[in-house]
Each structure stands twice: as C-alpha cells, then as structure tokens.
Amino acid sequence: MPNTQKILRSAPAGFTLCLLFATLFAAMGRTAHAQAVKDAGQSNTSPTPLNDATGQATIAAFKEFTQYPPESRPLHTANWDLLHPWSTDTPSLPMIPRSSMRQIESLRAAGVPEEEAWQSVALPASLPRYQFVMNKTILAGTQDELQAQLTVASNQGAALPLRIHVTQAEVIGDSDFGSPNLGRVPFSCTSDATVCTFRWKAPSAQKQFWGTLELVVTATVEGMAGDFVIRQPFFSSPMVAGRFTGQFDERLENGSLVIDAGVQVQKRMACFVSANLFSIDKNVPTHHAERRMIVDPSMKTISLNFFGKVFRDQGHEGAFRLQDLKGQCENLAYPPEWFLDSASHQAELQKFQSVPPTTQEPSRIYFEFNNLTYTTRRYANGVFSDQPWQSPESARKLEMFKKAAAELNNPEMDARKRQLQAQQPK
Amino acid sequence: MQKRVLPILCILAASLLMASPSAQALTHNILLIHGRSDSSNEQFGVFTFDQHQYWSGSPATADGHVFFVQWDAWNRTFDDTTCPGGECIINNAVNSLCNVNNGQECWIICHSAGCAAFENYLAKSNYCCNPIFIAHVMAASSAAGGSEIANVFSWLGHTIDKSLTVSYARGAYDHNNMQGVVVRGFGGTFNNTATACLFFPSQSVTSTSNPNCNRCGLFGGDSQCADGAVALHSTCGHNRAASFQDCNSTLAPHNDTAGTYSFHGWWITDQACNGQGGNSCNWSGPYSPNTNWNPGFKTYNVDHGGGAVNAIAEYSFAPFALCP
Questions:
Q1: Are A17 and A121 in contact (CB under 8 A)?
Q2: Across the strands, what pairs with A131?
Q3: Burial zone of B220 (CB within 10 Å; 0-12 exposed, 13-18 middle, 19+ buried)
Q4: Which residues make beta-bridge pairs with A270?
C-alpha cells in the first residue's frame, strides 16, 4: 500500500492543485477502482444475531421503529442535529490564494479541460486555515439574520490565530438564478484583527435571495503574500410558506400529549413540521415531533403529537417545554398530494415528467424562523399510555417482512449462491 | 424525454410480469444508485445494465434482478423532485421495483451522492405505512453528510456540488428518519492524495486513534480519517461534521451516544464479537476477500471508489439469507 505520509513529506514545496482536482472530480466522481489491498476476509455462516442485516434483523429494526409513531420519536442529548435544527458544524478549511483561483478560471475560460487547468496551478506549501462559526446555516424569512464569525489560523504547529484584513465581503446568489451578486455584507473586526463578524439578512422576499447562497470574503492575511477569497455556503428562504403565531393549546389524547401550534399558512404545500419537547424538571429533551403533511391557508393550527409511551419508557413527568418549531416545505412543480403519496399518483407523475419544467428552483421553502417556546401544565407519568403505536399498515408490512424472512431461509438457494461465489474473482 | 421515460416503463412492465400473482415467492430486486459523475453520455431512469459504466461490476445474485438507477448526479441536486434529479428518479425506481403489492422486495446499494439521494427519498417518504419494501441499505462511501471539498469548490463545480456541501447535505432532510430501514455504511480511511490533510476534520493522535487514517500536521500529530473525497463523519452516518476515527451504530442493541444518526450502523460484523472477527461470531462479515476491513474501528482501509467495490463484493459473497 502506498505510504501516504511519505507522499506528503516528499511533495514539492509548491505542490500542485492537480490532486485537488483528482480528489474532487475523480475520487468523488466516476467509480471506482479501489487500490489493491491485501487482507483476508472471512466467510462464516450460522445463526442470526438480532442486529445483522438478515430478514430477522430487518424485522427487529422495523419493530423497534414502529413501537412509536413516525411523527413522534424519543429525543436524546446525543441527537445534536435534531437539537440544533437550523445549524450544522462548519469546517476549518485551507485558504487558497486568489491568484491560483484566477489562473484556474482563466484556463477554463480558454477552453482548457478542468483536469488540465488544475494541474497547471501551484500552491504554497503551507496554507493558513479559515473557519466561519455560524449562528445558523439556514435562514427563514427576511428578519432572520446570519452572523458568521471568521477566524484564520496558521497551519504550522499550534494553530495560532492570524491577523486578517478584509477588503471585501459580499453574498452571491444561487446558481439556479444565475449566481447574482447580492451586494456587500457589513462586518466588524476585533481590535487585534483576529476575528471578523459578518451579518446578513435577506433585504426582501425576492427569488434572487432564495436558495444556496455564499458569503464570499476577500482578505489578506498577515505574513502571507497576495489575497484570498474564501466562501461559506448557507441556505436562505426569504419567502416563507407560513409562520407560527405563538398561540398554543394542549390536551391529552389517547394517552399522548398533543399541542396545537397556531399557524398562518401562505401557500398549500407538502411540509415537514417539527418541534422538540423538553422535560423542565430534568432539563433533558424528551420528544422530537415531525409531521409529514400538507399545509393549507385555511389551517389555523398544526397538532404536534408527543407519544405517551415515550414518556412512560423514559420516566418523564412534570412540566414540559415545547421549542425549536420548524416548518420545511418542498418546492414542488406538481400537487403536494403526489409527493406525499407518489405510489398512488405514479401515472400522474410520469405524465408530468414527460414535460418537466424548463427552469430549476431551490428545493426548499421554510416557515418563518421563530424563537417561540411553550410551557405545558404538569403531568404525572401515569397519565400517559404505555401502549405501543398501532398501525394496520405497518402491521401488514411486518407480516410481509416475516414472510420475506422465511423465504430467505432457503438451503437450496443458499447453495446456489455459494456456487456463484466460487465463480467470483477473488 | 421519451428516451428517458421508456426504460422506466419497460422495466416496470418487466418487473410486473416477473411478479405475477402466480408467483409465490417475492421477487428480489437489487437497486444500484450511483454517485456524483459526469452525465454527458448518461441516460436516465432504470436499466438492467450499467449504461453509465459507473460501477466496477454487478453483484452476484442467486435469484435476484439487478437494476442500475441512473440520475443526473452532475447537473441536478440529490433532492431535486423533478427528473432527472435524484429524488425524482429514485422515487420512480422504488415505486416500480420495490412494491410488495407487486411481489417485490428491494436491496439497495448506493455510493457517495447516491446515498444522499436515497436517504433523502426515504426520510421524506411514508415508508412505515406504504407498500414499499426494502430489506436493507448498503451505503458505500456515503456523501449523505456532505463533503468539505464541496464547501471549497462548489462554486467551480456543477449543480450537484452545491447540494454536497456539509450544510446543504445535512440540512436537506432528517437523517434520523430512516423509517425503520437499516442503513449500513462502508466508511473508507484510505486517502493517498497529496491533499490528504487539507480538507477534512482532524484530531490529535492518541493511542486509540485509527492507524489507517492519515497522520497530519507538522509532526504528524493529528489524525484525519477520510477516503479522499468524504470523511468518516459522512460515510459512517455521524450526526456532527466533526473528526471521527471509527464508525458507530445505533442499531439495536447498540445505542451510540457519540452521535450517530438513528438506524445507521456499519457493514457488518456486530456486537456478538465486537468486531474482532472469528471467535464466537456467527455472522461475522465482511464476507468477501480483500475488503481491508478494520474490525476495531468498523472501517475499511479503502479509498472513495473502493467503498463501491467493497459493497458489490460484499453483496456477492454474503450468504443468500443476507443478500439473495
């Protein structure tokens, strides 16, 4: 096996970007011939533990899933993504000199194939690294503000913060709309120039501010020659599908807690409406509710179900806090019913697909961002039901899984598979 | 467009014939969903041969039918609901080939962005309560959690790249909502590009670091685990885009608290032997030779393409009960 470290150490000081290209456009692209590796696998067969991928394990997983309804799941502190519904981690990335980027662009404009263009460009041996710490990576509405905090560090030894001088900051729009320049972005830097903060919100609900936008910052770095252009993508939904009003009502229904959240809906759409519930007494998350539904301007409330068995299984009682209300909707070119039940609308979908839209648009529209919370009454654990979720459809599916698993227990076919394996290249 | 729709209709007709009511057994369909690739000469839809010439081979199957699901993973995003976008093509394929009412059951092998496209489809479906029938998902080199490389170069790339940034890929759908379908990842750690230490998250080397990962930093004091295109945070289904040394599992009885999406785990040996192979393990994969499996870390020491090669080989060499 090639020694990666050796390759890295022996790379020329001005190592080229060609392998960047290879990485992006080949490694991630057309497959795929792995490097030759020498190792022994094993091939054992015998009974089935619970969590393998056989039919029995498929049954076990489906049973586990369907003990609670799809729209009301247990929530734990390990579910970082669900607990931060508007954010993702942002990576620390290398700063590539603007001059190198310009060379690439001009070569490509001259018709040089991408691979060759990248191979022609050299980079400094050591690149500083930048990171944008974002308050969020999804903006919903025109009042929702992005705050991106930029730091730059050396890539040598202890990553020391470097002084930066920002010469330009702007936002570039989605490629679906021709990647328009959406204007300058105000920013401020600390007195020691090691941290700069950029703030942006969509100035209007126009389409040009919708989709995958990029914060593009041009800067110089102390001790480094030339300037750098660095980028941070985020998603913006300036137009909204609706908003939560802040009105809430609660009730117990069939042993589960149901909270009706007031809404104003602007457009009929297929949406995923979600929220988290926390135990106030224990200060821990309890439920993640996620409705898959059609929202409509006639709606006044959306009911969020917090399933009784989750309370019982986790021993939760007392008062609870609802938060993280979010509505994520599909921007569809066809009726939302077709999306929610595509199997029943297969014929309509295929007819539609024969004459698809000529333009592309971003795939998502959100409900307006909110910081709403709602505190429930106190509940004793015993008021909640400990019964698993019952669904005729999922029960039918489970029966089919059992039939399928039985069919897979077929010595004759297993022997046939072994014969095929003997013919496979080792 | 007729060219694109025809293959789907033909496959649909063929699969319905194969699953005629007289047939007692379920039809086993194996769907291969490719990743990011230049679609210049690609036809879109479902094919019984690898028209796109993406894969290194076809999985061996005793009684199944292999289908190549081809979407525009160059000029469309993985969550595009209009064809030939990822969501649309996969939705059509699954409805045509994985419907238990038609006597069909599916095995999914996806690679890279194809895994993002399939998971997006699944998370937004009502799988729990519809007739779609999926045995399990083999997620090779999954880009469902995005790639830092796309963050740097999406502006120079193609439409697919904007959906493969870390924030887009992770924000597009609820990655936990696999509806009870098990997703098993092939996380690769072999990265021999000169840029190996440039893009992906790293952490200080300790005695417990994965020895197959790159040693980075001035004195090699940092460990960075990626397959050249995607880091383990994505290929292993971790719920944070951070530095990871291994794959973990939330498949019962595992309950990873370090941050793995629900219903995600590794391919394939499991708790009975804690990945050490042999001993008292019964179903202890991997089954094929030369996978370069690292049992202690549940990773494979292969590059990005190697994940796809391993997935095909694993399907081929696994017992009938696991991969028919």
A1: yes
A2: A151
A3: middle
A4: A294
Q: Which residue in A has a C-alpha nearest to residue B233's C-alpha?
A: A89
Vertex B17: Cα angle to B16 and B22 (nearest 5): 105
Interface confidence (ipTM) of the complex: 0.90
Reported as half-sphere exposure (CB side, CA atoms, 13 A), residue A179 has a value of 12
Architecture per CATH, A93-97+124-237: Sandwich (2.60)
Which residue range is the domain that position B146 belongs to? Answer: 2-317
Of A91, A105, A393, the CB nearest to B241: A91
Q: Mean of the per-residue pLDDT values for chain B?
A: 88
Contacts of B61 in chain A (CB under 8 A): 417, 420
pLDDT in tens, chain B (324 residues): 344 444 544 444 444 444 443 345 899 999 999 999 999 999 999 999 999 999 999 999 999 999 999 999 999 999 999 999 999 999 999 999 999 999 999 999 999 999 999 999 999 999 999 999 999 999 999 999 999 989 887 777 799 999 999 999 999 999 999 999 999 999 999 998 767 888 899 999 999 999 999 999 878 899 999 999 999 999 999 999 999 999 999 887 778 888 999 999 999 875 443 333 334 434 568 999 999 999 999 999 999 999 999 999 999 999 898 899
- Report CB contact under 8 Å: B271, A51: yes
Number of Cβ atoms within 10 Å of the Cβ of B59: 23
Residues B176-185: tens digit of each pLDDT: 999 999 999 9
**Residue A33 — very low, low, confident or very high, per pLDDT cuts 50/70/90?**
very low
Report how many domains make up chain B: 1
CA diameter of chain A: 76
Nearest Cα of chain B lies from the Cα of A228 at a distance, in angstroms, of: 12
What residues does each domain of chain A span? 93-97+124-237, 242-392
Q: Is residue B87 part of a domain?
A: yes
Pick from A283, A281, A305: nearest CA to A292: A305
CA distance B247 to A53: 16
With CA atoms as reference, report the closest residue to B176 among A288, A90, A310, A88: A288
> If DSSP states are collapsed to H, E and C, what string results for chain B?
CHHHHHHHHHHHHHHHHHCCCCCCCCEEEEEEECCCCCCCCCCCEEECCCCCCCCCCCCCCCCCEEEEEECCCCCCCCCCCCCCCHHHHHHHHHHHHCEHHHCEEEEEEEECHHHHHHHHHHHCCCHHHCCECEEEEEEECCCCCCCHHHHHHHHHCCHHHHCCCHHHHHHCCCCCCCCCCCEEEECECCCCCCCCCCCCCEEECCCCCCCCCEEECCCCCEEECECCCCEHHHHCCECCCCCCCCCCCCCCCCCCCCCECCCEEECCCCCCCCCCCCCCCCCCCCCCCCCCEECCCCEECCCHHHHHHHHHHHHHHCCCCCCC
Pick the residue of B174, B197, B205, B224 with the most A CBs within 10 A to test the interface with A by mutation.
B174
In a domain, residue B324? The reply is no
Contact B258 A179 (CB under 8 A): no
In a domain, B322, yes or no: no
